[in-house]
């Protein structure tokens, strides 16, 4: 039953001790974060978007997730905070001229540098491979290294020139502590937006109610105005039998002389006009020809022979 042939087993072969903790390769971990989508685990390709926690995604994967959230996916916890496409920002990345792409090593017989990244910082030139910290702006989506923002301190974007504040900076693929800070800031921002939206709705309802109350007073005043051009002045209580908000309306309106714009002219008003004014139109009796003035051979149809 074993141990034959002069073999001498050692203690570590017979006694099973505690398992060693498996160490994750740092290079593989960095490549998984910076070269692959956090949701679909596919290689990053443009358009690339980032959430408020600094994770990188393919835009196609985010759209598919938002269209069908019930589908089974391996990493749904990563995108649980994304409610709509407005919660992500499309990144404005700078290509790395040293990156040759996947076509260079199709057969697999060439050396492929794992540290070579697809994108770089447009100011300093550092590669976005995880060894250096990178941030993006929520206003414009431009991506820079932390070193560039420390060396060149400005309140304007280096790439597009849009102004920004410190609150607009989001760390890409940060540590656990940085992700927790970003999550707190995201929750505070959403609470502020929610309260502002509620206050705006309450203001709109108040304004609409006030407009309705004033509109009823104005309509009652316009109904009391005569159409024959005579001026009149009165209160809302005289013209409208219903109750008003303030009892009596302090404003008095005077009817303009002549007909109100947009109102139809009455027949009596047209009869009061002079005959000279009426004779301008072809419908007047003076413009019509009599039977003596009209000749027999003249016709209105050109096809008569």
TrEMBL record:
Residues 214-225, 233-249 have a biased composition (Polar residues). Transmembrane segments: none annotated. Residues 189-272, 284-305 are annotated as: Disordered. It comes from the Eukaryota. Belongs to the rtf2 family. Residues 191-201 have a biased composition (Basic residues). It holds the Pfam family Rtf2. GO terms for cellular component: nucleus. One of its GO terms (biological process) is DNA replication termination. InterPro entries: Rtf2 (IPR006735), Rtf2_RING-finger (IPR027799). This is Replication termination factor 2.
């Amino acid at each position: 039953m074993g141990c034959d042939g002069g073999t001498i087993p050692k203690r570590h072969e017979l006694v099973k001790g505690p398992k060693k903790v498996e160490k994750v390769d740092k290079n593989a971990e960095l490549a998984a974060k910076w070269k692959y989508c956090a949701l679909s685990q596919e290689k990053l390709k443009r358009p690339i978007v980032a959430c408020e926690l600094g994770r990188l995604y393919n835009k196609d994967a985010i759209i598919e997730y938002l269209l069908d959230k019930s589908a089974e996916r391996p990493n749904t916890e990563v995108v649980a905070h994304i409610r709509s496409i407005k919660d992500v920002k499309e990144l404005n990345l700078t290509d790395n001229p040293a990156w040759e792409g996947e076509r260079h090593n199709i057969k697999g017989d060439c050396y492929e540098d794992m540290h070579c990244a697809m994108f770089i910082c447009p100011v300093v030139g550092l590669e976005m491979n995880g060894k250096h910290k990178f941030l993006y702006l929520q206003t414009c989506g431009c991506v820079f290294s932390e070193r560039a923002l420390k060396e060149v301190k400005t309140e304007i974007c280096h790439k597009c020139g849009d102004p920004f504040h410190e609150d607009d900076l989001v760390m890409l693929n940060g540590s656990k502590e940085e992700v927790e800070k970003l999550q707190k800031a995201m929750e505070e921002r959403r609470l502020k937006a929610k309260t502002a939206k509620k206050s705006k709705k309450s203001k709109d309802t108040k304004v609409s109610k006030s407009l309705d109350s004033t509109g009823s007073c104005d309509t009652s005043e316009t109904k009391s105005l005569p159409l024959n051009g005579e001026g009149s002045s009165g209160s809302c209580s005289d013209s409208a039998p219903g109750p008003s908000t303030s009892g009596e309306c302090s404003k008095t309106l005077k009817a303009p002389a002549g007909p109100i714009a947009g109102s139809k002219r009455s027949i009596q008003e047209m009869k009061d006009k002079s005959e000279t004014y009426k004779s301008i139109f072809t419908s007047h009796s003076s413009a019509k020809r009599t039977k003596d003035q009209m000749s027999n051979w003249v016709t209105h149809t050109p096809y008569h022979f």
